[in-house]
Amino acid sequence: MGLKAETRDRLKTVSTATLATALYKRGLRSQFIQDVKPLNPALPVMVGEAFTLRYMPAREDLNPITVFQNPEHPQRKAVEICPAGAVLVMDSRKDARAASAGSILISRLMMRGVAGVVTDGGFRDAAEIARLAIPAFHSRPSAPTNLTLHQAIDINVPIGCGDAPVFPGDVVVGDGDGVMVIPAGIADEIADEAVEMTAFEDFVTEQVLAGRSIRGLYPATDPQTKVDFEAWRKQTGR
Amino acid sequence: MGLKAETRDRLKTVSTATLATALYKRGLRSQFIQDVKPLNPALPVMVGEAFTLRYMPAREDLNPITVFQNPEHPQRKAVEICPAGAVLVMDSRKDARAASAGSILISRLMMRGVAGVVTDGGFRDAAEIARLAIPAFHSRPSAPTNLTLHQAIDINVPIGCGDAPVFPGDVVVGDGDGVMVIPAGIADEIADEAVEMTAFEDFVTEQVLAGRSIRGLYPATDPQTKVDFEAWRKQTGR
Amino acid sequence: MGLKAETRDRLKTVSTATLATALYKRGLRSQFIQDVKPLNPALPVMVGEAFTLRYMPAREDLNPITVFQNPEHPQRKAVEICPAGAVLVMDSRKDARAASAGSILISRLMMRGVAGVVTDGGFRDAAEIARLAIPAFHSRPSAPTNLTLHQAIDINVPIGCGDAPVFPGDVVVGDGDGVMVIPAGIADEIADEAVEMTAFEDFVTEQVLAGRSIRGLYPATDPQTKVDFEAWRKQTGR
Amino acid sequence: MGLKAETRDRLKTVSTATLATALYKRGLRSQFIQDVKPLNPALPVMVGEAFTLRYMPAREDLNPITVFQNPEHPQRKAVEICPAGAVLVMDSRKDARAASAGSILISRLMMRGVAGVVTDGGFRDAAEIARLAIPAFHSRPSAPTNLTLHQAIDINVPIGCGDAPVFPGDVVVGDGDGVMVIPAGIADEIADEAVEMTAFEDFVTEQVLAGRSIRGLYPATDPQTKVDFEAWRKQTGR
Amino acid sequence: MGLKAETRDRLKTVSTATLATALYKRGLRSQFIQDVKPLNPALPVMVGEAFTLRYMPAREDLNPITVFQNPEHPQRKAVEICPAGAVLVMDSRKDARAASAGSILISRLMMRGVAGVVTDGGFRDAAEIARLAIPAFHSRPSAPTNLTLHQAIDINVPIGCGDAPVFPGDVVVGDGDGVMVIPAGIADEIADEAVEMTAFEDFVTEQVLAGRSIRGLYPATDPQTKVDFEAWRKQTGR
Amino acid sequence: MGLKAETRDRLKTVSTATLATALYKRGLRSQFIQDVKPLNPALPVMVGEAFTLRYMPAREDLNPITVFQNPEHPQRKAVEICPAGAVLVMDSRKDARAASAGSILISRLMMRGVAGVVTDGGFRDAAEIARLAIPAFHSRPSAPTNLTLHQAIDINVPIGCGDAPVFPGDVVVGDGDGVMVIPAGIADEIADEAVEMTAFEDFVTEQVLAGRSIRGLYPATDPQTKVDFEAWRKQTGR
């Protein structure tokens, strides 16, 4: 169990748009984390299993700045125990009025080998995070400390993030369009299908840029399209 | 421990507005469940300890209509185990596009002696619920079954409801203005203070309706106000 | 073709919540017109085939008050040609900042035998409309004339209303929870199923109000429930 | 200067919808206070000159509960100096997460002869306010004290309320649809025009309820309509 | 008829801000497509006549992935028939939760000589589209296929886009601020006026950057400003 | 009095995130201007005292394009009198549907030595403003002239901006995360504290990037951390 290395590698070569279509074909329409974007769009595709952190609204008396002195504070603990290769996904209730985390914690995640971090709220120190070599996705920058509005309450439970359901172990993929969540049980087959779809889409793109109409080509309702695609695969070794 | 009968009784005589002010004086500014209203405004004040249900976004493959055949389904289980005298508070992520529950479940809560039910989403069968003798608060009516968008996932964990933090055991009070959440540890003192405040506010209201200015009266910066209030208390036995 | 009289009659006896569940079982999750409510909740259930009016944003030079002198103005024309028994459904782009219609037009619809009127915007003269004997649903009252923001542009084309798809001829049902849209082709079977479901729900409600647990009862996983239900049907003649 | 008694009387007989159309004809499209509703829809039409109160976001250190001990606190002062016959209009930045005022202050306004009160936020003690004989309009009930989010900062300056511009002295009219703001300088002519329009609309309504088509009737493009209307005016003395 | 080549050329030299002011002077206040931005801000100004595509909310049974096999599917057909030099404007009901189109279709538009593409929803494959030499404007990236929420239903009808009215043939101009819609009938005069305004604004900018006050300069209430401007025009040949 | 040069210099070396935490420790949770971003993120940190401009909703008859011919028009006047070194902060009621200002006015502010400009609405000519050497923050670009929706009404009064309270003379600091507002009376102490915090955070970042755990380090609950930090300060001269 767990995310196979080859599945991870395959997913790194496909787009969230292609994955969305593959999931759509299986009746899954809600797996896109709405309204988050990469802080550094130049990084490679983010892939990893979801490790989650749940925030609830902060109550003032429970959230003095001193709470972080407790090494078991869920936000800090999550940063130290999120597995290497996983993606830390935070349920911030789509509220970016205070930060979900800042550059120090995300630097620590990067150093620990975590594959990425996602919040449906906002990060502080956004410019610094954008310079780190770890993919990070949020809604918009937010300077206030998380204590202002968010209390970290649960680690690695099922959550919502940007209106998408996220279960621990789901496979999370992020690129310039945002973040898709693949249910753990179908990650392998979705990866396979998406790699196939990507080959076809690359072929189609080449054809379109060469002047061909999408009629009969995309989708491949004209039998000639399939012939041409097979030839292209041979030629390109895909 | 737990909510004392006398505290419950006192809270039934005060308003959420008065409670909000008492909590504000202690630095608690986020205890109002935003944007919910009573389905039947004519019922008495709702008071009870919070028993919570957490929803996450629904994933289509996990939410066929058959899930309710499982007696352990968290929504159905919560309805059967929520203690009499408690208030069932649902975290529906402020999403009323599908229902949090309907009239049959709320009828069952009423029959079991539950003190009330709150969601930051919506209820279906709203007209029928409005005719039941159990206080219910929601954002707006919503016909679609909860499975459409909401998957019940956790019972009696800390949640957010209408942007307010709700911990199991917190004391929940609801009236025409909406719902306030009193941290469990200060419920007794808040109840006492609110009863005192209510006496003063009733006195002030009487004075104002008799034509007196609020200057010096509300707040009682004129010493005569305190004299008059004491006389009023004696006279009215409050 | 068209809505059968017996289907109409059956739909008048069921709730939008029950219809939503029946549609959900068929994979239709988007048929609830979000965020509209009845102006007069005391009227019977609204049932009729959709006849649509599409508004686009108003351009100032095209919408002087004089446009209504044109008898072919789509808003006025729609009011005069919407068939008796149909429901006039307006796509106001969920914008209630200006009215979709007012009491005079809705009075005319009522006199012409139209079964109801729905907008995902707002009506003006809301208090007067609430006194008419025609079901009307909107988001909230809105005094400004439709010309302020809405230009009627198309009659009886497929539209969106409150994020629901509405095709001319779809069967529209409205009650206290709001409005459901049943695809024309399945109206009969949905009506039949909903009548059956309603009988069962009425039985369940009776049982619950008599103190029975929902476990095994709702859904009927306990075989005794089915036995009891059959007995109840005989007894009640349903 | 000031609102003439006869203009006030005329405005009490017309609707905000009619006024909106009269203003629309003069190019004024933004005079409707968006998204407010009467707490007691059964009261007569509210009419009065605007007297304004401006709130800004509250800063915690400036808003302890003790600020109300200052008799010059703008919220309390506004309540004591708003002229009889005027309407107190509050700019709460469309934020109903905390109250703009409560029943005691609004009782005082009523006793002082103020004609009404409007906020684009919310009132606390909404159920009590709804029982007072002063028209009050808000977005929704809100229990938290105004200090939580609102600091009263300016009295009788030009403000925005529900996205409408409100200048001191503008004539404010409220009914079941909400609240319209008439620029002071055209209040008389708008009142006259609206009374005329109302007569015609009442005639039209009568005709429509008698079965007449709106074609040629509304607007009166058929010359016969004008003839009939004149006859109706004579008959009804309007 | 249609957009003149010289008008197109002129519009390529002006900004949407200048056009907005020219339209404002004619009483047109709603011609800005709200909340869209260019995917590639480095491209030249987009200019072309509007060719429209209308989406409605998707119904699940009508939108299996196989619908694209139909060459007449309106989305695919629009891409193949939108005239060279036109701008394809999509009414996606301001809903970016699913894509309006992706890189393959937009590549095809580019190859066909289409002048640009606008949606008030979102595009998928946003990073790839940003590298194409065709101006594209949207609200934000969105990975899910359009079928998830959008059904293409009408080609080249009047639509709303970002709350702006768009009629087929209107002249659409886009730059870093977003997209303006010029009614077809006044495109020539607006272009002329905007070119004149741009000359003056360029002169003003030069003056301001040289240290001159805006008083008397912008607008040119000081007669000397007009003298200086005329001299500048001669000098610069504009 | 006023902002000391050394406080200004110190504030230029710290981040809004650090300032937010320092303010949070003093109970100030609302000082972040929500949802604004820099047009040019590459500029240095913006620091200056707030000089404010308040907009109200525009009334059509008061806002013809000719109003700018009045040299006392508050928008134009504010641009000419805002002190050098100050930050012009505009209350645009969080409404970016029309512009708050454009490149000519902001060029003039730059030439006059103004330290920056902030609106909770949008600027027009955004691409040009982004090339100026003055920090500017807004919500999003917006082409329409301010007259379309905004009437400048007051100069240098207390305002709200992005839900934050802003008093004239407050110290405004802006960077990649957005804009913080420091109450004037505590600017010096906040600057001192933030410089200290920044030193520690820089040390922590270095340690984390060298592989150290945040446990005991951030916050410095491990005594060794304090020892190491002191050594680092000596070594780095901070």
Automatic annotation (TrEMBL), chains A, B, C, D, E, F:
InterPro entries: RraA/RraA-like, RraA/RraA-like_sf
Record-linked Pfam families: RraA-like (PF03737)
Protein name: Ribonuclease activity regulator RraA
